[in-house]
Specification:
- The structure is a homodimer.
- By secondary structure, chain A is an alpha+beta fold.
- Chain A has one domain: Pnp Oxidase, Chain A (Roll), CATH 2.30.110.10.
- Chain A contains 5 helices and 13 strands.
- In chain A, the strands form 3 sheets. Chain A has a 7-stranded antiparallel β-sheet. In chain A, strands 2-12-13 form a 3-stranded antiparallel β-sheet, with no helix packed on it.
- At the A-B interface, β1, α1, α2, β2 and β5 of A face β1, α1, α2, β2 and β5 of B.
- β11 of chain A pairs antiparallel with β1 of chain B, so a sheet runs across the interface.
Chain lengths: 205, 205
């Protein structure tokens, strides 16, 4: 198999867009989620994130990386103001609309309205979910960590509610994401669908 | 579509394995990588990680989450000792062997040897790559952050070399991971293959 190789010196002199594509795609597939939030004065915000990461199961925590240089940090401001946010899986019927949330809009406009997705409120949970998503998580802001290397921020949240389609959930509560039609993100702008090969049976030496 | 829902109270009383499966699968697809490292006395280590996350493109940084309660932290000890590690994409022909690195082995044994993957050394780079992987990244340890919520650690590294199959790299240096046969991880034990739907053309309002 013929290979393409880049050294540190090669990477450093790459044209900006090429470097963005190469570096964003080289770490493998990423989760495809829409984070929903609302400001204290009631303006909804929705933004696509590919950096959501599992932090722990008991208690249940997730994290995501906030970039300093991209869209204004309305999501983060809202999360700090209200203390809550939602995580909604991107599926094949909403990925184009979801991706459009990565463009820059004025703070007083709701991305739900602009891109054409429907805010859904559940019980007394303050942050909006995405009605069209099939897997939805309610989160409570926990804390954040400044990444000194480049000014990004790791935001952490406790998972306080989960919703998934019945037909995607196995008996042991594993959510088969291909049955939930959840997509995965490749680099900055690639969306891929998936097919489960197998679940590897647990073994202990 | 019929839904299954879990509240915080439901999550807290779940049987341990069910909670592990539910919480590990609810955040969406994860990257599938093998981290290669070597101790200062020359013992190789290889471990599967699903938490590698993009941190920045210029300079190029990635991070990964280290769990406190899983396998002994040989990878982390090696990375601190030598300052370097490799990130190797899991593909369909090696995912079973790769997954076996998540079992617990004595520190003096090389997981490469135990699971049957081949260490590959490039130039003067100290850490071993996985010969059978098609996308391979060389990293220099940068720093780490203690996550106070649960004792996990975010380890950060600078990307100092990248290698990918020529046929998977687009003209703008986007690596199409489905053409590289890179897999993605669902939960703790699910492996999925992918098919690119599309790359969304860049637009600016």
């Amino acid at each position: 198999m013929q290979k393409k190789k880049w050294s540190l010196a090669d990477i450093e002199v790459l044209e900006k867009k090429k470097r963005l594509h190469l570096i964003n795609s080289c770490t493998g597939y990423k989760s495809a989620n829409l984070i929903g939030s609302i400001s204290s004065d009631g303006v909804e915000n929705l933004a696509v994130f590919s950096s959501i990461v599992h932090l722990g199961s008991d208690p249940a925590f997730l994290g995501f990386i906030l970039r300093p240089t991209t869209v204004p940090r309305h999501s983060f401001a809202n999360i700090l103001e209200t203390g809550y946010f939602t995580v909604n899986h991107v599926n094949e019927s909403i990925y184009k609309k979801g991706h459009d949330t990565s463009l820059s809009y004025p703070k007083e406009q709701s991305e739900f309205e602009i891109v054409g997705l429907t805010p859904e409120y559940q019980n007394d949970f303050i942050a909006p979910f995405v009605k069209e998503a099939s897997v939805k998580i309610g989160c409570k802001y926990s804390s954040h960590y400044d990444i000194k290397e480049n000014g990004t921020i790791l935001v952490t949240g406790q998972i306080i509610s989960i919703e998934a389609p019945v037909e995607a959930v196995d008996h042991d509560l594993f959510i088969d994401l291909s049955r939930a039609n959840t997509l995965t993100i490749n680099g900055l702008d690639g969306y891929a669908k998936t097919q489960t090969i197998e679940r590897i049976p647990y073994k202990k030496l």
